[in-house]
Amino acid sequence: MGTVTLTNQNNPIGTKVVKIQAPNNSADANFTGSSGTLFMLQLDNTANSSASYFKMCNATSATVGTTVPDLVIMIPPSAKRVMVMPLGIAFSAGFTAFCVTAGGTAGTTSPSSAVVVYAIIG
């Protein structure tokens, strides 16, 4: 499980900035403690020479390798990705996330080095 830092914001786009340091094959369950809308992700995979897959579930918990993710983002090797969703993606149950080395539902292997994720959530 990664280390999660949550910062509340007074901003019309999002009310929380979340930093997930080193998400891995142990799900960070409902890391905001509530439902909400995802507006932005910054994913840093520069420490890895292989692609990593950041996955999010609209759920209060998930079983890595079994629970079907609602969002899967491939981060190329040695790269950063920023994704902005101007209208947002609603998560009605909660935000659960993890990061592995395979896309789709399967895959239970953590990236070899830390991936860092920032999210803006309203």
List the SSEs and their pairings.
Elements: E1 3-8, E2 16-21, E3 36-44, E4 52-58, E5 71-75, E6 80-91, E7 95-100, E8 116-121
Written account of the structure:
With 122 residues, the protein is mainly β. The protein is built from no helices and eight strands. The strands form two sheets. Strands 1-2-8-3-6 form a five-stranded antiparallel beta sheet, with no helix packed on it. It has a three-stranded antiparallel beta sheet with strand order 5-4-7, with no helix packed on it. It is globular.
Helix content: under 10%
Main β-sheet: number of strands, strand sense, barrel status?
5 strands, antiparallel
Class by alpha and beta content? mainly beta
Stretches where pLDDT is under 50 for at least 5 consecutive residues are none
Could you give a quick summary of the protein structure above?
The protein is an all-beta fold and 122 residues long. Helix content is 0%, strand content 47%.
